[in-house]
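Sequence in, structure out.
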Amino acid sequence: MRDTSLLQQALGLAPPWTVSRSDFDPEAHRLDIEIDFAPGSRFPCPSCGAADCPAYDTERMTWRHLNFFQHEAYLHARVPRVRCDKCGIKTVNVPWARPGSGFTLLFEALVMTMVAAMPVKAVARIVGEHDTRLWRVIHYYVDAARARTNASGVTRLAIDETAARRGQDYVTLFVDIDQARVMFATEGNDAATIAAFADDLTAHGGDPDAISQVCIDMSPAFTKGIAENLPNAAITFDKFHAVKIINDAVDKVRRAEQEEQSLLRGTRYIWLRNPQTLSARQRKTLGGLPTRHLKTARAYQIRLAFQDLYQEPSAQAGASYLKKWYFWATHSRIEPVIAAARTVKRHWDGLLQWFDSKIANGLIEGINSLVQAAKAKARGYRSTRNLKAIIYLLAAKLDMQLPAL
């Protein structure tokens, strides 16, 4: 009696549910707890909530619970089906588990807490369950939390892609800049992803017409999708991506020139960094190069000058600066630099939009790093659906509404 009374209190069971028996097997490292209900008990209908429905029959069910010390614990109960005058025969909801789950609510809360900090396979090994069962739990809570997400105040977005797996598989992330949270993740990196986001935004109380600022890389597909689905959004092209285009041009110049100038071998990272971030050894190497005669050095100076664009005080001053820079770059007689300058010209307005929006994709790049780190620890995910669930779990700031452990 003392054992059942203690377990009754520990489980927090209220009438008509009672602990009727417990069986502990120290060799099997297992505790089994039997739960029953009082004869003649009546229950609310799980569909319409009508009270005082009589039990029609019962079905025996089992749930994995939190460990009893180092021993696995299981709850067993006869779960009644009730006869509702309005809904017919329905299985009642038990207070310790959600419908359809083989785990108790507290066990699921433990799993959800753990998977936010370590790979699902690692959690599965620790708790002694197959990871497929845990993924079902993760998807349930993530989907339920996303359904509760309120997107009504979203007006500024950062959009970028992240690799789902090796090859050409991508997931596009849509980040609410003001709340620093992932709003949506979807397969692909084309214009259709923007349409999918607009539909999802509407479904969560947001308004595609209310999106006023979007930061993207120079993807034509994203640009097209924004024009078609977010009609009032001003596009800012990410400044870090713009600088990377010029950086890539500098590297192309170096690779070509080092065929004739062997001194350039091993200097790649010198030209990709800013002077103030060079190590003492790199500065010494740079000082020993005949920079006056190197195309790479001229391309490097053009790259540094492009970065200075973002130090201008206004869009008008930025436009004037960019015109001078463009003239210099296109008259440099360095083909990779000229090609990069023409790319800049095609995205002129979006680059200058930065002076009004002051937004960049640094936030989303940080989220990408978090996602890729989680993917690396897990050694990849079996499906894109699983990857998206982890993205939401780590970066969407979801209200999971888990029971307190």
